[in-house]
Amino acid sequence: MMRRPSLTIENKILIPFVSISIVTVLCFCYIVYDAEYKLRIETETANATALIDYINADIDAGEYWRDPNALLEKYEQSYRGDSLFLYDAADRLLFSRRALGEHEILLCQSSSNSLGWKIQCSLDQAALAAAFIEEQRYLILAVIAMLIIIVQAGVMIAHNISSPIRELSALCTGISAAPGEAEELGGLYTHRRDEVGQFAQSFQKMMESLRRYTDELSWVKALNESIVENLPLGIAVYDDAGKMIFRNNRAETMLHAADERDAQGRALGDYLNSLVRRGEVLPISLTLHDSAKKSHHYELGAWRLQSGGTNLGTLCTVDDVTYQRHMEEKLSRDEKLTYTGELAADVAHEARNPLAGIRTGLQVIDRKLESERDHLLCCEMIKEVDRVDLLVSNLVNISRQRESEKTTVHLDTLCEEMELLYSKVAENKGIEFFASIDAGIVIFADEQEVRQMLINLINNSIKAMPDGGQILLSSRIEEGGVCVSISDNGPGMGEAQLSHALSGEGGGRGLSIVQRLAKNNNGELKLTSAPGEGTSARLLFRRTGGICYDEV
Fold first, then answer.
1. Distance between CA atoms of residues 494 and 489, nearest Å
2. Integer CA distances (angstroms), 271 to 2, 228, 236, 311, 324, in order
3. What range does the domain containing 417 cover?
4. Is 71 exposed, middle or buried (0-12, 13-18, 19+ CB in 10 A)?
5. CATH code for position 367
6. Residue 487's pLDDT band (boundaries 50, 70, 90)?
């Protein structure tokens, strides 16, 4: 089947317009030409008839029968046309200005004269046509000019119609290729009052709607991508051939943990590939170990993606439940510790009464002893009872754990309270108590726990200086957060003593309790001590981790 030629809309408009116009002009020219031609023939025929009548009358009126050559000489001298032909009775040519052509137009002929001559008037069709065209040259030039004007007008009309369509078509092509980068019309053709203007206005409205919908879709797409990319759950999508075609940031991070393996040396990616091949749906638990032998717990799942019965691929999820498992273990430990603490509180409560009785009895016995050696022994027994009582008191404090109630704590007010509380106590023991407190320092913490930390640290400093000394309580803002410091010039501690004090070994739990309370309030305890140089305890409340402070 022959393929039709593809024409542009400009040619589709131009060709019919020019063709119809040319045919119309040519038909008009033909009609004019035919009318003028017929009129010319009629005029020449009338002139020929008149000429023949005149010759017949001239022949009959004169005595040319006596000398026919005289008549011929007359017409040789007087006739200037080329249409006259004279024949004698024997049909021999007597007179003509030209030879007969192949295509002659017979205008008129007659032989009704006294000489019996045949008089004929005819025209050479070719010569007549040439002469007629020469006479109508201005008309031909006008027709040619008209045709040129028609062609130019057709080109302008076709261009005027097709140009907006081409530009709008190019704009549509740009929109289909890159919807977000399409240019607007900018008022092009919208000012026109014809159909093109209406089309341009409608197209402009469509562009505005499309841009608005595109912006909305782009926002929704960006939102969905942001949600998927920032999910704490790892997501990986595989095609029907088992090739990974998408994974979010979380899945990227977990899959690139190359050092995490199971006992058989399989990584997380190996398990996902196995799930894709088997098409398992129910989540499975998995435990991997890194190079440091640290455990990492995962839950994996796989779901088939289908549409209209067609399998599109597989969606795999990876959930890192390591923290959850640790919290479950911690919760289990906390439950055990809670039970242990309750049990310890009961035991401590029951043990303190007998200890009090034993101490009272030893004091009574000590007053009745006469031997110095027995007296020293009894004092040592009383000290041991006090040490056990202290251990029981610390056990009670540990068992009384409660939920932290964090609020705004004004450190300057709290430190001034400590200064007021312990100034007299320190003075009675020969200790000078100084305070350097910056005003306006606020932290977000449990006020009761902060107070307990300060009390324990100040009590430790007082106990460390039975022979007197100096204690400095200070608070200030540092680069890392807020620092509260309790320093003394007591005997100090070596590294071994310091380690034992922080761990609670040797019966002293005060510093270990401070460590725990500081951690609960996103802080830390730092001890600096050396034999003969005193001890400095620094409580640093950090800026991060939900603990805030500000200057008021």
1. 14
2. 61, 22, 12, 21, 21
3. 402-551
4. buried
5. 1.10.287
6. very high
